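Dear colleague,

As promised, here are the two records you asked about, laid out in our usual form so they can be pasted straight into your sheet.

NAME FIELD: protein one
SEQUENCE, THEN STRUCTURE:
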Amino acid sequence: MAREYRLISSDGHLEVPPERWTPRVPKQYQDRAPRTVRLPDGGDGLLIEGLPVQAANFLDMRAGRPAGQWQPLGLRVEDAAGTGPPEQRVKEQDIDGLDAEVLFPAMLAGPVVWRNISHDDVYKAVIRAYNDWLAEEYCAVAPDRLLGMGVIPQTNVDDAVVELEHCAKQGLKGILLGNFPSGKDYPTPEDDKFWAAALATGIAVTVHVKFNPLAGLIAPQPSRLFVYPKEDPALMRKLRRGLLEWITFFGLPPAVSIGQLVLAGVFERFPALTIFFAETRLGWVPFWLEAADLWYQRHIGWAQEYLGFKPLHRLPSEYVRDHIYFSVQYERVAVELRHHLGVGRIMFATDFPHIECEWPNSRPAIEQIYADIPPQERDQIWAGNAVEFFRLPQS
C-alpha cells in the first residue's frame, strides 16, 4: 500500500515477550526456546539457554514513563509502551507523529543472546519462528507502517543466504545482520555469496550499532577482527595494532565494523551495495572519517610490507560516504554537521521504546532542532532517505 511519508523512525524496537512468537518454534525445540519467567522482586526475566536469567532491561522500557514510575527493578514488560500488539504500535506511532518505523528486535533480550543456544538447529528454528511471526502476524497488520527487520543466523554463509532469501520472500523490508555472514568475527571471502544474494533479492541490509563478536557469548578466546595475508604472532605483538585498529581507533564501536567492511574490499567488489548502521549516533562520524583517512595514509606503507595488505583504490571515507547510512536521533550538533557526511546518508530515528526516545514528544523536539534546516534537507533526513533505502512505495 502506497502512502505519503513525512516522518519515519529508522530505528525502533520490538521489546515483546517471546511468548508472542515462540509458539511457532517446532514442538521438539519448545523447551529450549526463550521464555519469560517471574523474578523474586515481581519483575519479568528472560530465560535463554546458556545464560543466567536476564532481568527485563529498564533502559529498554523507558518510553512514556514519568520519572516516578520508571524504576530499575521489578519491571513488568506488559506495562511498558512499545511492547503490545501491532495495533497498539500503530497508535503509538500516531501519538508521536510518525508515519512508519523500522522495527529491530529486542537487543539485550534478542538475537545477540539467542546465539548462546548451543544446538544450531534449535538456534535457527528460533530465528525462523521470529521472522515468520514478524512477517505474517505483526507487520502484516500495517505493512506500510510496520517495517520489520528479519534476523540472520550467525552460523555460516549458507544458512545466512537461506534466511535472507526467506525474509525477502516473506515480504520483509530488510534484514538485521548480527555478524559477518560466515558467522565469524572478521570478514572472509565466503561472505561475498551473501552480499551477492542481498543485491539479487533487493532486500535492505542493516546492522544495529555494530557487529557483535561471538567471543564472550559462546567462545572464551578474544575476538579476532581482521585477517591479513601475512601475519606473524610475534610481529603483531610488536606492532600493537593492525591496520584496522589504527583507522578506527578514534571512532565509536560502529567504526570497527564499518572499517572491517571497507578494508575487506566489500564495496570495491559490490559497488551497488549499501548498508544501514542503526543507532550509531552521528556527531562523531565526520571526525572519524577525517582521522581514518589520515591514519590510513600514515600506516598503509608498512601494512603492505609487513601484513601483505593490498591498498584500497580510494580513501576509507569515500567508501563510507558512498555505501553506509547512519541514523540520527535528537542530536542538534550532528544535524549541524550533516554536510560532512552527506544529507543523503542520514535517517532520523527515535529508538522507541528505549531510554533515548522522546515519545510521545518526538515531533516538537525535532521541529525545534530542524527549525533552520532547509525543508528539502529536512525531508530527506526525516523520511526521504528511508523511503529510498528500504524501497518503500509512495503515493
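NAME FIELD: protein two
SEQUENCE, THEN STRUCTURE:
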Amino acid sequence: MAEFIDFPRGIYRAAVFRDGKLESALFLGPADAAPQWDAVRALFEVESLGETERRMAMSGRSAGGLAETGPVICACFGVGLNVIRDAIASNSATNVEAIGKALRAGTNCGSCLPELKRIVHEHAHAV
C-alpha cells in the first residue's frame, strides 16, 4: 500500500499494489485537485508497474511526456534529484530556501535539508 498526504492542500491518496499491479486506488480532496481519471484508469490494465508508473498512479497524472525525476531526495513531497538540479540550473531555485519555495522540498520534516545543501554546494562549485 502506498499513501500520499498533502495536508496544506487537503489531499489524501492511497493505492494498493499486488505483484506490481494496481489493485485499488482512493483519492480524496477538493475538486480542483482531482486526478486525471483516464490516466489512473489505464494503469489498472498494466500487468506490472515500475517505480515511475507507481508514482504517477499516486499523482493522478499521466506519465506521457514527463522527464524522469531521478532518485527521490525529498520523500515528503516526492521531489527527485533531476528536478532539483533542473531548478538550480534554470536559476529558478539557486539556494535551499528557493528550492523549498519552488518545489516544496525541505519544507516539511527537514530530513532532506543536508542533501539539498550538498546539491546546491556541488552545483555552485561545478559552474
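A couple of things worth noting about protein two: The first strand starts at residue 2 and ends at 6. The chain has five helices and five strands.

Best,
R.
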